[in-house]
Amino acid sequence: MRESRKMYLFLFALTVATFAGFQGWRTLLNNFAVERAGISGLEMGVIQSVREVPGFLALLVVYLLLIVREHRLAALSVLLLGLGVGLTGLFPSYGGLMLTTLLMSFGFHYFETCNQSLTLQYFDKGTAPLVFGRLRAVGSATNIAVGGLVWLASTHLEYVSMYAVLGGFAVVVALGCLLADPTRVDLPAQSKKMVLKRTYWLFYVLTFLGGARRQIFVAFAVYLLVSKFEFSIQEVAALFIVNNVIGWFANPYIGKAVNRFGERKVLSLEYVSLLAVFVVYAFSESKWLVASMYVVDHLVFNFAMAIRTFFQKIAAPEDIAPSMAVGFTINHIAAVAIPALGGIVWATVSPAAVFTAGVGLAVASLVFVQLIDREVRLKGEE
Q1: How much is the pTM?
Q2: Among positive and negative, which fits the CA dihedral 361, 362, 367, 372?
Q3: What is the rounded end-to-end Cα distance, in angstroms, of the chain?
Q4: What is the pLDDT of residues 190-245, one digit of tens each?
Q5: DSSP letters along 73-99, please?
Q6: 252 — phi, psi (to 5°)?
Q7: Which of 49, 96, 144, 208 sees the fewest Cβ atoms within 10 Å?
Q8: Of 48, 75, 370, 6, nearest to 214 (Cα)?
């Protein structure tokens, strides 16, 4: 890892900036949307669908790499995220939220694409899970700080000021990273074209299913807590702090667990846990039981790093950057549609029906993940 230390520190700094901006945006969003913009459940679903459009367009990263180096694209993406977050408080309307969300989301998704790609390129198969775990832990620690900041600031500052501070921080860090060059010249050159291979089919399927179920959580879990159980902004912030304290301690061990037990077992545990989570979301009337399942959901989402480390084991080295971009697009095929469709189901059928669909996605993921060891073995026999 010593030879890639510059890249680790570079990704460390950008991860802090990204999590600070995105976590602050997410912590404030539901209360800002309800209290200032008067957003309904259906409108929230549409906004969350708009938020996923940049993820669907992540394959464009492949073409951006023709004109800008990958580490610089990572820094520029965080700069864009910061601008989107910083402007959010100035536009308390349905249309304004859609526009600032889109700007923020392009930055977030393009950074995550570059972040995953650079980690898999610069760290070997034994080290990459540990780096993913450490960076997630760094993100969790950042989220704790942001949750505390929001908790304290919410009684003294308006939304516009809080968004400006969080977005401004991300912008400053990104500008500093634009001046850095953490690259190495001894690594395989990455393909500058879109890569789709039949041998990567299981990675594509698991990525698609993960994106679909994740959007149910992102778009509707906190909205359920705010709209049904009347969580205040302080309670939402406290819940995020609890999530991230657990993540801070747990994420490094998740990376170690991937190395020790393998991707199949780690991901199987995630999907079994999700069965319980979605059932509780759908049918429980207990405010605190639902909140506890939110914590579980947040924790097991970090297990998804095992999908990427599985891909590292079956991929050609030059396919990593374009495949991470394609993977993000596949992840967001369902993600673009599900929040809006979920909003319609929420309004016309019931909130329970939205979360019941998540049970089906968890079952499908559990079935497909059992094929991971076979795919790794077939790659080893080539």
Answers
A1: 0.79
A2: positive
A3: 28
A4: 766 777 888 889 999 999 998 888 878 877 888 888 878 888 877 877 887 788 78
A5: HHHHHHHHHHHHHHHHTT--SHHHHHH
A6: -60, -35
A7: 96
A8: 48
